[in-house]
Predict the structure.
Amino acid sequence: MATSICARVEGGESLRAICKPRDMPGAATVHRWAAVRPEFGKALRRAQAASQAARRDAYRAGTADRAWKRARPWARPDAYQTEIGEEICRRLASGLSLLEVCGQDDMPATGTVYEWLRAHDDFTRMYREARRMQAEMLADLAWAIARDAQDHDIKVARLQFDVLRWRASRLAPKVHREDDDKREQVMEVYLQDFTSGAILSGPRRVGPGA
């Protein structure tokens, strides 16, 4: 029971609350135990000190959090600022992901950005344009990787190229996505001599996806 009492005190419960149930000893009894049993007294004091330190740290963290919110009032869904939205879009257009942008100290959380996208049409337009520019940058990067690939790293380069191309197609599907329907609309044309049945030339691929 002594061990349980110390654990609950360290967890943040007051001694009065612990001793309130009928099946627990009274607070006066616990204090008497602490006086006559040195080991229990030391353990109880350590538990009380740990509990006080935890409460003090929690208070300091709460104070810091309130100060952080005062210093960054725009880091709330209802506090959108055009300047912050423009900076988010600039960083996206430079190639950073939204997680990377929002992980920086001067940027709001991703949840806040999504709230702004739902609530502010002007920010939504800027965001879409930034994503389109990001797709162009990723496509250029994929081309540079493919162009500079060497024989010893061709597999890695191919993987990077495919991932970047896929990402670009997700960000700007109208520009970078391959059209499966067009790829299927391809015909192979042969030039045949109908007299002998011989194939004179071909095949030659024609069609939108050729």
